[in-house]
Amino acid sequence: MLDKPISPLRQRMIEDMTARRFKEKVQKDYVRHVRNFAAFLGRSPDSATSEDVRGFQLHMATQQIGAPTINSAIAALRFFFNVTLERPDLVRHLTTVHKPRKAPVVLNQDEVVRLFEAAPGLKYKAAFGVAYGAGLRVSEVVALKVTDSDSQRMTLRVEQGKGQRDRYVMLSPQLLEWLRQWWKAARPQAWLFPGQNPVNPMSARQLSRAVRAAAQSAGIAKRVSPHTLRHSFATHLLEQNVDIRVIQVLLGHAKLETTALYTRVAVNTIRDVTSPLERLGANLTGQSPPT
């Protein structure tokens, strides 16, 4: 069966994104959102009016679509109308939706150990170790190359992470040992964690499935994903009194306020704070207990 030809309008949008070096996943997401907008209209999106755009956002809101999806669609439409069609007036009234900031799910140290022990083989144990031991995003874990590990400087190089920024993170002796065990067993050539076809890296979905399966096998009741290991990395460092700005750099956060989210779940840090009630000390002595 022949592939459906790409319309000139879609091709132009893809070229506009490629010229700005948008990642392939972002390009696919943007094209999908514009396609959904066209389906809502029932005609070509280049014939849309500002009322059509407004109606589409209202439609998404009434369909109980999550805030991240709505905001992604808004970003796609803004790009399409601002850049590809050069009609910024049509999206002037589009507004992003506030996403409630929930406290992240964090594993305690015992749960992390159990998760590692339940990993299905050296490959996944090493990948889990990178997510927790270096705080990498799942997309960054699977994109690691063999040459990104530097045992002399004890660092891992994260190439073109989120925001297309490179950074270095620490490579602990324990993680280095696991990576060496994995390399000796499989001798990966290019990708540190190759997929079923060694030409390609392991997919983020494949790693996510392995983490969920290991968590279930380990009897961990919490909802666990590779990002849970990243959350746990940041929280445990904060509980060890590592400066929050250092943690920000290690995580690759552009804003400190994003890193500060972990102060809400750093139990040891919260517990070690002395309540002002305790400082009243002797002034409370001799008072009658509450009735």
Structure description:
- Helix content is 51%, strand content 3%.
- The chain has 291 residues and is mainly α.
- A three-stranded antiparallel beta sheet has the order 1-2-3.
- Strand 2 and strand 3 form a beta hairpin.
- Helix 5 crosses helix 9 and helix 6 (122-133) packs antiparallel against helix 8 (173-186).
Quick structural gist:
By secondary structure, this protein is mainly α. Helix content is 51%, strand content 3%.
Helix and strand arrangement:
Blueprint: H1 8-19, H2 24-41, H3 50-62, H4 67-84, H5 109-117, H6 122-133, H7 138-142, E1 149-150, E2 155-158, E3 167-170, H8 173-186, H9 204-217, H10 226-239, H11 244-251, H12 256-259, H13 267-272
Relevant CATH superfamily of the largest domain? Intergrase catalytic core
Q: Given the C-alpha coordinates, what overall shape results?
A: globular
Distance between the termini: 82 Å
Which structural category do the helix and sheet elements fall into? mainly alpha
Examine the secondary-structure arrangement and name the CATH architecture of the largest domain. Answer: Orthogonal Bundle
- Treating each run of at least 4 consecutive H or I residues as one helix, how many helices? 13
Helix content percent band? 40-55%
Strand proportion, as a percent range, falls in under 5%
Q: How many structural domains?
A: 2
The value of Rg in angstroms is 24 Å
The largest sheet has its strands arranged as 1-2-3
At the first level of CATH, the class of the largest domain is: Mainly Alpha
Biggest pleated-sheet summary: 3 strands, antiparallel
Number of strands: 3
Q: Please state the average pLDDT score.
A: 87
